């Protein structure tokens, strides 16, 4: 078996380009709620851009440079935007019961994304090298120690936490976002719930 | 549109969409928003609390920290896994104690790591200190305990005059020399760096240096900014900046019984969050939970145009 051929055929079958980048969508997606996902993705991109600049100049830079503080501030507010829109997106998907029609795995990847994002933000707070990091590390260690993981995931070890924050966790996030978007595009957007307010003929779409 | 998508959306009115343009516009909006917020509000950056600051402004507090490291009453000295075999901070519910199961993986002998070894490194500069350290190390545990109790008694009556800690005389053997030198080492600003020395030039692990101020000194500063656990500190930033508000549920647990009053609060909260997270993750397959959206009917608002069109 030719692995390359197999993967190409699988990709073309599972996710044709016109589904990956569609230029037609059902009219019911015309709601502000559908912007929360793309705004979360845009915030993530902003986090990557500002984070890469901070990494290039090193973890001490933003404490001693006005430009560094400005880039750090962009990173800080991008985190707030990222979580703000992600939580709105999450609740919107919940109230739309967006797991219907075989989309359960996409809900699960969304929840895992939320959890990994929390861990990524946490390691970011720990990587600041200021009082905030010091306090969070010393308070937070008890929770990790109580759960038996403090020896391996040592939040007082700057090198370990910084590496996780700038490489490992962003890669995991990017990978999960890729899977999440792939599932959205391959399954299509979920159809509206059946409602007595609007009896329609699309019962077969609902479940 | 693929045949599969055509099947899926059969019966629904389709409209033109441009997802790439949408993402580009969203990125521009977010970029503009965070740049404006960065210009207006900057970001918090309060410097770390150092042993030098504590030794200068609160010398008695640093001395109390040091004496309790020696007598084993200090939080870290009595902690338990992963640092030592103490039991002061071990959390267990019945037989369930992952902390104990994980064992001592970051061994840390608090008196040696935080006090005796750092002072031994600078002892060549002060022969009297070298003699005092040798006397202390050679003493029996009961002799050490007697000195420590005596020193603690004297410390309770200490006064600070012009930044100097004045202690009444005590029968505490070599401890006045040892802990006097410790205070001076902290005042020099070199204490954390010496605690952290590991024989290698490059260093990225600050575990030991961070742990030394655990307890009263750090808690005092955090309390002044309402950052303690019972004050929702887990989701706060210093100053008036928004913190990790997404941790509201985890933080909430620490404000209510049984968590707020439990000695195993971290273990209880961790287990609770774990269970709630699993329930949240598997909502699509849990009857009752997965039916909530149908009952609260917020979806009517989200798809109001769709329902209005069909009603007509």
The helix-and-strand class of chain A reads: mainly alpha
CATH H-level superfamily of the domain at 97-189 in chain A? Cytochrome Bc1 Complex, Chain C
**What ranges of chain B have pLDDT less than 50 throughout 5 or more consecutive residues?**
none
CATH topology of the domain at 97-189 in chain A: Cytochrome Bc1 Complex, Chain C
Strand order of the largest sheet of chain B: 2-3
Helix content of chain B: 40-55%
Distance from N terminus to C terminus of chain A (CA atoms, Å) equals 38 Å
What topology emerges from the helices and strands here?
The complex is a heterodimer of chains A (207) and B (312).
Chain A: H1 3-14, H2 17-20, E1 24-26, H3 35-57, H4 61-64, H5 66-95, H6 104-126, H7 131-146, H8 158-187, H9 203-206
Helix pairs in contact in A: 3-5, 5-6, 6-8
Chain B: H1 3-8, E1 14-16, H2 19-41, H3 51-57, H4 59-71, H5 98-102, H6 110-122, H7 127-138, H8 141-156, E2 159-161, E3 164-166, H9 175-188, H10 191-196, H11 207-211, H12 216-224, H13 248-253, H14 265-281, H15 292-296, H16 299-302, H17 304-311
Antiparallel strand pairs in B: 2-3
Helix pairs in contact in B: 3-4, 3-9, 4-6, 4-8, 4-9, 7-9
Describe the model.
The complex is a heterodimer of chains A (207) and B (312). Chain A is mainly alpha-helical and 207 residues long. Chain A has helices at residues 3-14, 17-20, 35-57, 61-64, 66-95, 104-126, 131-146, 158-187, 203-206; one strand spanning 24-26. Chain A is globular and about 55 Å long. Residues 201-207 of chain A have low confidence and may be disordered. In chain B, a hairpin with a 2-residue loop joins strand 2 and strand 3. The two termini of chain B are 28 Å apart. Chain B has 312 residues and is an all-alpha fold. In chain B, 29% of the residues are buried. Chain B has 3 domains: 3-42 and 292-311, no CATH class; 51-217, no CATH class; 225-281, no CATH class. In chain B, strands 2-3 form a two-stranded antiparallel ribbon. The mean pLDDT of chain B is 92. Chain B contains 17 helices and 3 strands. Classes of the chains: A mainly alpha (207), B mainly alpha (312). The interface between A and B is large, with 96 and 105 residues.
């Amino acid at each position: 078996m030719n692995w390359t051929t197999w993967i190409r055929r699988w990709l073309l079958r599972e996710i044709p380009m016109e589904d990956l980048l569609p230029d037609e969508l059902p009219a019911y997606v015309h709601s502000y709620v559908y912007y929360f996902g793309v705004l979360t993705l845009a915030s993530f991109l902003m986090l990557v851009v500002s984070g890469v600049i901070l990494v290039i100049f090193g973890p001490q830079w933003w404490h001693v440079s006005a430009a560094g503080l400005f880039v750090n501030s962009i990173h800080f507010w991008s985190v707030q935007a990222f979580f703000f829109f992600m939580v709105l997106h999450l609740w919107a998907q919940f109230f739309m019961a967006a797991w219907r029609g075989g989309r359960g795995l996409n809900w699960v990847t969304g929840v895992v994304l939320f959890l990994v994002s929390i861990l990524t933000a946490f390691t970011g707070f720990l990587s600041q090298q200021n009082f905030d990091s010091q306090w969070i590390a010393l308070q937070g260690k008890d929770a990790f120690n109580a759960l038996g993981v403090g020896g391996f995931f040592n939040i007082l070890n700057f090198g370990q936490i910084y590496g996780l924050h700038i490489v490992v966790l962003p890669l995991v996030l990017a990978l999960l976002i890729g899977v999440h978007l792939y599932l959205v595009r391959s399954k299509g957007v979920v159809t509206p719930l059946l409602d007595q307010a609007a009896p329609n003929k699309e019962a077969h779409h609902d479940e | 549109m693929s045949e599969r998508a055509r099947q899926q959306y059969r019966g629904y009115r389709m409209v033109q969409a441009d997802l790439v343009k949408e993402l580009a516009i969203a990125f521009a909006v977010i970029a503009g928003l965070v740049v404006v917020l960065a210009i207006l509000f900057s970001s918090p950056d309060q410097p770390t609390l150092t042993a030098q600051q504590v030794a200068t402004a609160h010398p008695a507090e640093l001395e109390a920290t040091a004496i309790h490291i020696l007598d084993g009453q200090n939080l870290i000295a009595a902690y338990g896994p992963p640092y030592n075999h103490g039991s002061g901070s071990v959390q267990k519910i019945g037989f369930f104690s992952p902390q104990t199961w994980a064992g001592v993986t970051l061994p840390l002998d608090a008196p040696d790591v935080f006090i005796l070894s750092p002072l031994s490194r600078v002892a060549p500069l002060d022969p009297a200190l070298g003699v005092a350290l040798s006397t202390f190390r050679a003493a029996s545990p009961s002799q050490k305990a007697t000195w420590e109790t005596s020193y603690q008694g004297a410390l309770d009556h200490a006064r600070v005059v012009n930044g100097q800690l004045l202690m009444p005389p005590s029968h505490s053997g070599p401890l006045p020399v040892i802990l006097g030198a410790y205070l001076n080492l902290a005042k020099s600003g070199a204490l954390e760096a010496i605690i952290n020395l590991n024989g290698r030039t490059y260093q990225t692990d600050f575990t030991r240096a961070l742990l030394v101020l655990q307890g009263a000194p750090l808690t005092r500063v955090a309390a002044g900014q309402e950052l303690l656990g019972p004050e929702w500190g887990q989701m706060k930033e210093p100053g008036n900046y928004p913190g990790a508000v997404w941790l509201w549920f985890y933080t909430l647990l620490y404000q209510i019984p049984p968590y707020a009053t439990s000695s195993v609060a971290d273990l209880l909260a961790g287990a609770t969050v774990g269970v709630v997270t699993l329930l949240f993750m598997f909502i699509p397959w849990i009857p009752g939970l997965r039916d909530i959206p149908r009952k609260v009917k917020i979806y009517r608002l989200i798809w109001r145009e769709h329902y209005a069109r069909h009603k007509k």
